[in-house]
Amino acid sequence: MLLKFGMKNWFSFRDEVEMSFRLDDNCPSEIKMNRSFTPILGVKGANGAGKTHVLKGITFLGYFCSNSFAEKPEDDIAICPFYDSNEATEMFAEFQIGKVIYLYELLLTETEILRETIYRTSSKKTKILERVKNELTYTTKKLEALKGVKLRKNASIISIAHQHEIEDLEEIYGFFDDVNSNVTYSGLEEQKTRLQNISAFYHKNPQVLDFVKKFIIDCDIGISNIEIFEHESGEKTKQYLPLFFHAADGKSHAVTEHTESSGTKALYRVLKEYKQILDSGGTLVIDEFDMNLHPHILPKLIALFEDPLSNPNNANFIFSTHDAETINILGKYRTFLVNKFDNESFGYRLDELPGHILRNDRPILPFYNDGKIGGVPRV
């Protein structure tokens, strides 16, 4: 599970911004649910404030640590410093695997990695690895196999170790590889996955289809069932198409994807990702997660990660939304607000605000709408 994330000199963030999932003793028990962290964090802010840039940071770190070895050795690193800054970009992630807490720190430019460091905390905090440019400057005995590996200026040592099957970094690799996001370097990635491909996955994984079916039926008063229809095309290749059944006049009527509602199809697409992350205990990063969905469905999606029964593996859900009511659901301990001043972004969790304007026993939305806590556009 992700416990803390930070970055500096990244897109519109010049100074360091830190996003924490840890909860202190002041947090109400109904939010903590016997946990010292929140698996949920909603990112709010005005258009252009930098919400997506925060999500890009988490997404980049996941990809870089797990897949950067796949890039060509001469390629630049896909980062974007603050405007014309010549300084290096900094990132870190603190996360827990089992009972062990790891801290990963990264310093890099668009052309090379300057430093990577990994700390491990079990009974005490210990540095287990440090890399300065293309030289391995420190490693524990368990990781000495890395000394014989050639480093690359644009590839994370975690990604390199995975390619060389060095098992002692494999669980760290697995954490970063299990970051699933709809955000790319350019921003929100349009959902291009065809329903046929999604349906083929559901056909092979009926337990996931059962999860999706139950969720949609609970949300959609018109749907009574969803089935996958197997069809052979002219090339004798199998295609899988969804049929959405609606009950009317005592009969069940099959509706194809061409006439089914956009909201139902949106759920049909995205719930696969939710279920997979819940099962694996990974990190789901969703920009504008309310897109094409009714506001009343959003709390149900959030609850999947909030409830320890549906989220026994402590998966993280980090999302942005323009739905105003969501801020009352999340409260001050699970809302991260992004603001911008003079084209420089900064962010904070709402419980970090000084004073007593925000309390656990009253809604936050009125203060948000009045601009008293930031994060709203000037209109």
Q: How far apart, in Å, are the first and last alpha carbons? A: 39 Å
Shape: globular
**Strand count, sense and closure of the main sheet?**
7 strands, antiparallel
Which structural class is indicated by helix and strand composition?
alpha+beta
Counting DSSP E segments of at least 2 residues, the number of strands comes to: 18
- Could you tell me the strand content as a percent range? 25-35%
Reading side by side through the largest sheet, how are the strands ordered?
A: 2-1-4-5-6-7-8
Low-pLDDT sequence parts: none
* Overall average residue pLDDT: 91
- Give Rg in angstroms: 22 Å
Our count of helices gives 10
Helix content: 25-40%
SSE ordering: EEHEHEEEEEHHEEEHHEEEHEHEHEEH
Q: Summed up, what is this model?
A:
This protein has 379 residues and is an alpha+beta fold.
Give the SSE layout.
Blueprint: E1 2-8, E2 17-20, H1 29-32, E3 40-45, H2 51-67, E4 89-97, E5 100-108, E6 113-121, E7 125-132, E8 135-139, H3 157-163, H4 170-177, E9 179-181, E10 183-184, E11 187-188, H5 195-204, H6 206-219, E12 223-232, E13 238-248, E14 251-255, H7 262-280, E15 283-286, H8 298-306, E16 316-320, H9 326-330, E17 335-341, E18 344-349, H10 365-369
Parallel strand pairs: 3-16, 3-17, 9-15, 15-16
Antiparallel strand pairs: 1-2, 1-4, 4-5, 5-6, 6-7, 7-8, 10-11, 12-13, 13-14, 17-18
Helix pairs in contact: 2-3, 2-4, 6-7
Tell me what the structure shows.
This protein has helices at 29-32, 51-67, 157-163, 170-177, 195-204, 206-219, 262-280, 298-306, 326-330, 365-369, and strands at 2-8, 17-20, 40-45, 89-97, 100-108, 113-121, 125-132, 135-139, 179-181, 183-184, 187-188, 223-232, 238-248, 251-255, 283-286, 316-320, 335-341, 344-349. The protein is globular and about 75 Å long. It contains ten helices and 18 strands. The strands form four sheets. The chain has a seven-stranded antiparallel beta sheet, covered by helices on one side. Helix 2 (51-67) packs parallel to helix 3, helix 2 (51-67) runs antiparallel to helix 4 (170-177) and helix 6 (206-219) packs across helix 7. It is an alpha+beta fold and 379 residues long. The mean pLDDT is 91. The two termini are 39 Å apart.
